[in-house]
Predict the structure.
Amino acid sequence: MDWAPRVKPIKIRRLYRYARLGIYDDTLLQDVGWELYARCTDIATVADVYREGRVPCPKCSTKITRRIDPLFSKGEGGTHDLWFRCPHCTERLLWRDCRQALRNTPRCFTCHAALLKTDVLRCTCGKTWSQDAYNQSVRTRVRLPCPHCFNPVRRPEVPVQRGKNRQPKPELHCPKCQAVALHQYGNIECTACGYKRRWRDYRKSLKKKDEKLECPNCRYTFRWQTWRKSVRSLRTGNPKPAREFIKRWLRCHTPQQRMIQIDTLLQTLHGRGPLAPLFIDSGEHNIRQMLDDLASQR
Ligand SMILES: [Zn+2]
Ligand SMILES: [Zn+2]
Ligand SMILES: [Zn+2]
Ligand SMILES: [Zn+2]
């Protein structure tokens, strides 16, 4: 799949230089705006894949449903993950996004400041974690900082589904003989060959397993891990600024309106440090410098 490139900082700087002089060069505005738009669309597409468990075919864009993902829906917060609201800032959240935000920018669990990455992760309050210990905590903690306001939020309870409302579970197959298998007594048990394994170990092995995906439309086959790697620079737990820009850009009719929408997005990126390199083609330090410069000129 061909993903849209990130926008060059030089173009953005030029835009602001002109705007400061009261010049709204619409060719340049359209150029930068549509590049941002294309990038935002890709970011939103990738975010949808992690939310829905469906991957667009790299050749024809048909959405292919993953077989493995639903099995993780309870633990890792997959397709059936629950929306909840942060009690502090009322943003709509998914637990998996809370986790992902900390993988992007590790924060202290106590004071919620961003951690310094040295040989260990270090907080100004004195707490330190090894990277492994930190990752482990992100996976297992029931209270994590909100990705938007950084106040602590509690992991939502997964409601027990009973009777008629119960969603059909994906059918399990024995990894040995492919016959129907059951999830019972904390194990996966094959109904045919007697294969039996701890459910937890089984899930872990699946997670590592690379899934082969075949497009039902054009028959193209590819691997999930390869696809996942190809979108690494587009993956974020916070696709909201991208989604907002997509909506608003299409409603712009004048050069001034276009400048406002580009500026709104850049201001949001300025406030969310680690998000900016997804959109702008430069190192984190240079991008921060540029966004600082632009902010001081507003
Ligand atoms: Zn296809
Ligand atoms: Zn701290
Ligand atoms: Zn919040
Ligand atoms: Zn079997």
Summary: The longest helix spans residues 26-52. Residues 70-80, 163-167 have pLDDT under 50 and may be disordered. The longest strand covers residues 180-184.
